Amino acid sequence: MLVEFGTFALRCIDRAALLEGMARQAASALGADRSLIALRGADADLFRVEAVTGWPQDMIGQPLTPDGMAFLAATTGEPTAGVDDVSRDQPPPPGLELLRRHGLRSALAVPVGTDNSIVGVIELASTELRSWDDGADLLRGFASLFGAALDRLTADARRNETLAQREEELRRYRFMAEMLPQIVWSAQPNGIVDYYNQRWTHYTGLPAYSGKEGEWADALHPDDKEQTLEVWLQAVATGQAYETEHRIRRAGGGWRWMLSRAWPMRDETGRIVRWFGTATDIDAEKQAQQALAAARDAAERANRAKSRFLAAASHDLRQPLNAFSLLVGTLRARLSEPRNVTVVEQLEDSLAAMIELFEGLLDLSKLESEAVQLDVRPVGVPALFAKLERDFGPTADAKGLELRMRPLNLRVLSDGTLLERILRNLLANAIRYTDQGGVLMALRRRGNRVRIDVVDTGTGIPEEHLEDIFQEFQQLGNPARERGGGHGIGLAIVRRAADLLNHPITVRSRPGRGSRFSIELPVTTEPEPGAPQPGARVGRPTLQEELTVLLLEDDSLVMMATRLLLEATGCKVLEARTAAEALSLVRGGALPDLILTDYRLPGEVDGLEAVRRLRDAAALPLPAVLITGDVADEVEPLARAAEVRLLRKPVKPEELRQLVQRVRDA
Questions:
Q1: Separation in Å, CA 381 to CA 297, 386, 407, 528
Q2: Of 567, 34, 91, 155, which Cα lies nearest the Cα of 334?
Q3: d(CA 537, CA 600)
């Protein structure tokens, strides 16, 4: 009988049928009139009737009462038997109250356990007085089979619930996957793709399939396949997230850039159970990036071409301007008739205006093309202010203006050349637009920064034009563009140079009262690099009465103009067109007091290298001046390192005369 019930319990897949079959077969096997099965409910201390045989059906769902045999067995976990064999006038034995009320005389209850816990109870009852010794073991066998069957059904129910939940999750996942505008896919832990949403088919024309290996790789662009597969296999091998960019073939032809990503899903042990991935169309962004890169390359090529043009234009245009400037200076020294002097002065004014415009345009072009290489280092303020006062003092005096300088004894961190260019333009503008009063350049310290102010008592600037003045060729109050009003590019250079140096510049102005231009710079405690002293004459004999200048220049016109001006200042000039010719002169016994050389020379030797060789040949640190028309900013630090003074073409006659005089006075 147990075998028959065990077979039934093993095959039964319905919980209610199992309960009913257990109640019926147990009662039949032991000859009981009634049977019931109660199981533990959600409340651990409460057992409810789940199946009955011989009892009213309305007992199902009712809790066991404490006065019953079943309750005792369920709560103690031990089989319980009872017989009501005493007078009905006497109280029934414990657990038989319920039986007596229903006319029953004996009962047997056996707990049902699974995994060492009591989950229910089986109770048999009879109207006759009987001993249950011969049936207790049999009922325990039924209870054991019943408990095992309950375990199996519970496990099956949980498994089915889990599967149903996963199926529902998968259904929701695939529903959402189909709604997304991206390609969505999944793969097995070994990397084999087993699912695509319909977007894949729409995009590539390939079917959405499961379990086919390798077809996704066939859609890759040939140039991207190897790299993409390598990244994917690396992700599968390491368990790291997958991300790469590649092109895939469109259904209608052509290729589109995609961003592919995948993330591993792990179980509670950390084992990868699935990969989930997406592929997003980034073709528009990629095309924009490529267009931007192409535009950037074109701009860089244009800048390089512009830089080459600037270098060539600077040198080629400065050469005749340089000769013109020197010749005019020589001519002025030779003329004495007032009428002729006036003509030369007009030539000088025109030339100065042309040079100023030329220098401004080249500076502006350099700044716009980013051809300027910054040389940021400590710059001494007192020396810079003194130099500017020396250069602009005569101009201010000529207009009857007072030029005042108020420096502080400190150093700022900046590019000395650009900073000087900024302040020169600010001072030139202040003097140009001031007719009475004066111009003040003062330095004010604010913590670790300083502010340089250029203040004038000039015409002032209306507030609505304060930004316009920094635009190229903007001139206020000069509609006829008279030369005395400047060219309108000085402040444009100031703004671009200040931005490049990250020196904030501001302006405040009141029409009729004047203007204040301010620039902020950082203070530094670093020492200022030693300035070259081209006039120092270590170990030289006393100068001869006539100053000897070795002029190294390959341009015939510039050579002639420079020689004439030097001779007019009382110099003896030794001419050389190449470094080899100059070396031959020194090795032949000529010992110049000053070397004046162009930077660009024929052959592979430039002016700086020529100076080095000439000094070695003379075994003396001969004073030297390098003249260049190049815009390349690396020339200046090289000249400074070699202790060679730098002059830029076109050289002003007075500048050359002052240089010669400083060498004489050294």
A1: 41, 9, 6, 10
A2: 567
A3: 26
> Which stretches does DSSP call E strand in 267-330?
272-281
How far is Cα 224 from Cα 495, in angstroms, rounded to an integer?
47
Q: Could you tell me which residues come within 8 angstroms of residue 641 by beta carbon, excluding any fewer than 6 positions away? A: none
Nearest to 122 by CA among 84, 71, 170: 71
Burial 152-167 (b: 16+ CB within 10 A, else e): bbeeeeeeeeeeeeee
> Which of 76-90, 150-164, 430-444 is modeled with the greatest confidence?
430-444
Alpha carbons 611 and 617: distance in angstroms, whole number: 10
Do 147 and 26 contact (CB within 8 A), yes or no? Answer: no
Domains recognised in the chain with CATH numbers: 2-158 (3.30.450.40), 180-281 (3.30.450.20), 373-524 (3.30.565.10), 547-665 (3.40.50.2300)
Q: State the DSSP string of 541-599.
A: PPPPSSEEEEEE---HHHHHHHHHHHHHTTEEEEEESSHHHHHHHHHTT---SEEEEES
Locate tokens 């066939």: which residue? Answer: 218
Q: Cα separation of 531 and 149, whole Å?
A: 102
Q: How far is CA 561 from CA 118, 139, 225, 424, 472, in A?
A: 120, 133, 69, 28, 34
Look-up of token digits 């030693």? 530
CB neighbour list of residue 606: distance below 8 Å, 6 or more residues apart: 599, 600
Q: Which pLDDT tens digit goes with each residue over 445-480?
A: 888 899 999 999 988 888 766 776 766 545 544 433
Which residue is associated with the tokens 């002016």? 607
CA distances from 298 to 286, 288, 308, 493 (A): 18, 15, 15, 25
Q: What is the mean pLDDT of the chain?
A: 80
- Whole-number Å distance between alpha carbons of 539 and 622: 10
Say how many CA atoms lie within 13 Å of 548 toward its Cβ. 14
Q: How far is CA 387 from the centre of its chain?
A: 43
Question: Peptide bond preceding 650: is omega within 30 degrees of 0, i.e. cis?
Answer: yes
Rg of the chain's alpha carbons, rounded to an integer? 52
Task: Look at residue 608 and give its three-state secondary structure.
Answer: helix
Closest CA to 24 of 60, 54, 47: 54
Taking CA 546 as the corner, what is the angle to CA 540 and CA 550, rounded to the nearest 5 degrees?
Answer: 70
Handedness of CA 523, 527, 531, 533 (dihedral sign): positive
How many residues belong to the chain?
666
What's the CA gap between 327 and 561, in Å, rounded? Answer: 5
Q: Is 571 exposed, middle or buried (0-12, 13-18, 19+ CB in 10 A)?
A: buried
Tell me the pLDDT tens digit for each residue of 76-103. 888 888 776 655 666 666 667 777 788 8
Asked whether the whole model's pTM tops 0.70, one would answer: no
Pairing mode, if any, of strands 438-446 and 449-456?
antiparallel
User: How far apart, in whole angstroms, are the C-alpha atoms of residue 316 and residue 649?
Assistant: 10
d(CA 347, CA 353): 10
Query: How far are the Cα atoms of 36, 126, 134, 156 from residue 95, in angstroms, in the given order?
Result: 15, 14, 21, 36
